[in-house]
Design brief:
Elements (H helix, E strand, L loop, with lengths): L3 H11 L11 E2 L6 E2 L4 E5 L4 E5 L1 H9 L3 E2 L2 E3 L5 E3 L13 E6 L5 E7 L2 E6 L2 H10 L11 E6 L6 E6 H14 L6 H14 L12
Antiparallel strand pairs: 1-2, 3-4, 3-6, 5-6, 7-12, 8-9, 8-11, 9-10, 11-12
Helix pairs in contact: 1-4, 4-5
Organism: Actinomadura livida
Pfam families: DUF5947 (PF19372)
InterPro entries: DUF5947
Length: about 210
């Protein structure tokens, strides 16, 4: 998935100063109006790109039931899961997130200091995991993800909006030092997951 708005967010979070630090707002990808934070994101399914949405456009998509044409609102549902056999999915370095495409194919990505590295999940493996964790069948294609954390003995599995995953990528790129990451990055990853809270509302995900 190309993620123009979130790629900009990752670069901004990794830099010492960026548009937000200068008091500048992102621009709505739908109407070009300013999109000051907090703001929603919309998935352009035709391009596989996430766009910033201003307040007015975000409200429009809420009224339209979270979708309009080939645009889909990124929801704000965030749910702690139990019993997902993450080891069967081959999660490297303790962190990965998984998204389903419109055709049902599942892509896995793991955050790294270079961004997010991806691979395709074997369909049979995903089917087996979903059979044991039925909530995964509810993942909304493109806009929600399974986020897995087994870093330093953690055992966390979350159903989250896709922009949560890219916030985590930004944390890692900002905090990583040296070859192994350094102590700060792992502390910041712990803090990221500590700050996650369950939000089951189907409305917009703001950040």
């Amino acid at each position: 998935m190309r993620s123009g708005a979130l790629d900009r967010a990752i670069r901004r979070a990794s830099a010492a100063a960026g548009p937000a630090a200068r008091g500048e707002a992102d621009t709505c990808g739908l109407c070009d109006a300013p999109a000051p934070e907090p703001h929603a994101h919309v998935l352009d399914e035709s391009k596989g790109e996430l766009l910033c949405a201003c307040r007015a456009c975000g409200l429009l998509f809420e009224r339209e039931g979270a979708g309009y044409g080939h645009y889909r609102l990124v929801p704000r549902r965030r749910e702690r899961l139990r019993g997902v056999p993450a080891a069967e999915l081959g999660v490297p370095v303790g962190l990965a997130f998984f998204t389903a495409g419109p055709d049902g194919a599942v892509t896995a990505r793991y955050p790294s200091p270079m961004g997010a590295t991806e691979w395709t999940v074997d369909p049979g493996t995903w089917a087996d995991v979903t059979a044991r964790a039925p909530r995964l069948a509810e993942l909304r294609p493109g806009v929600e993800a399974l986020l897995v954390n087994t870093v330093r003995g953690a055992d966390e599995q979350w159903l989250v909006p896709i922009d949560d995953c890219y916030r985590l990528v930004a944390v890692i790129r900002r905090s990583w030092t040296g070859l192994s990451g350094g102590d700060r990055v792992w502390d910041d990853i712990d803090a990221f997951f500590t700050d996650l809270t369950e939000t089951n509302s189907p409305g917009t995900k703001e950040h």
